[in-house]
Amino acid sequence: MSPSTHRYLSLGAGVQSSATVLLAARGEIPTFTAAVFADTGWEPAAVYDHLDRIERIAAEAGIPIVRVSAGHIRADAIDPKHRFASMPLFTLGPNGERGMARRQCTSEYKIKPIKAEVRRRLGYPHPRRVPAGVVADIAIGISVDEIGRARDADVGYMRNVFPLLDLGWRRSDCVAYLERHGLPGTPKSSCLGCPFHDDGFWAALKADSPAEWADAVAFDAAIRHGSARANADGHPLRGQFFLHRQRVPLDQVVLRPRPAAADVDVPGCGPWTCPHPGDTTTDSTTGPAPVREVA
């Protein structure tokens, strides 16, 4: 099979995908037609600052970074006129039931807009059918320590490829490479109000970014009784939503960040590499709990 003439990078702007675009910009792996960043509209400011830096580096190497979007996830979630793409919010039922809402946000705000952009660039935007044999290679920044997340594409017009696996690189190799080439401190890509943040993230946000912390606290309060659309339609949540697993208002959470020596480096959320399980969650007091919607 001849190589695809369409080669795109799914750019999450975290460590692995940033290392991948830098490798291509420096000619150490084959280049990309474009790098596609799916913008939820609610990444931390540090991520957008980093994206601007790698955008300049990529542009000098002739690799355009394309920002696509399905909307602003925070604004959409509290808009009574907008359909709510469910987030994995922690739920507390009327009788104390503990669970999580379904996770649709990654699919709606990251995967779908990237697929739409690839189809458009192939010349077959939805609803046109992509003919058999028209295929784009999609590079995904999965490293050896995350090899279990490497999967084939679920559509015929995309073929997933994994440059970091080909190199045998781990996440630590990506961090060292970015540091050697002037990109230390690459942030993790994820929504500001993602329920999967650990206490280290929340504590740092509260201490270092008070405006962003206040934004997350306000959102946590806004979603307490379900989505604005459901409430407007007369279907309030039977229970409550929370951003934090303690299931109390975010500004009342007792944050317990891990000591630096015991810190576990949790990856960010990429379109095809969200590190969090889709069917279970671990709660510090109840153990594994089913992901279910209490509504």
What does this entry look like structurally?
The protein has 295 residues and is of the alpha/beta class. Helices cover 32% and strands 13% of the residues. It is built from 9 helices and 10 strands. A 5-stranded parallel beta sheet has the order 3-2-1-6-7, with helices on both faces. A 3-stranded antiparallel beta sheet has the order 5-4-8, with no helix packed on it. The radius of gyration is 20 Å and the shape is globular. The model is unreliable at 278-295 (pLDDT under 50).
- Unreliable stretches covering 5 or more consecutive residues: 278-295
- Distance from N terminus to C terminus (CA atoms, Å) equals 50 Å
Order of helices and strands: EHEHEHEEHEEHHHHHEEE
**Strand arrangement, largest sheet?**
3-2-1-6-7
Largest sheet: 5 strands, parallel
What portion of residues belong to β-strands? Answer: 5-15%
Radius of gyration: 20 Å
Q: Level of helix content?
A: 25-40%
Q: How many strand units?
A: 10
Q: Which shape, going by the Cα principal axes?
A: globular
* Discrete helix count: 9
On the 0 to 100 scale, the average pLDDT is 88
Helix- and strand-based class?
alpha/beta
Summarize the topology.
Layout: E1 7-10, H1 15-25, E2 34-38, H2 45-60, E3 65-68, H3 73-77, E4 90-92, E5 98-100, H4 105-122, E6 136-140, E7 158-161, H5 163-167, H6 171-180, H7 199-208, H8 210-222, H9 228-232, E8 240-242, E9 280-283, E10 287-290
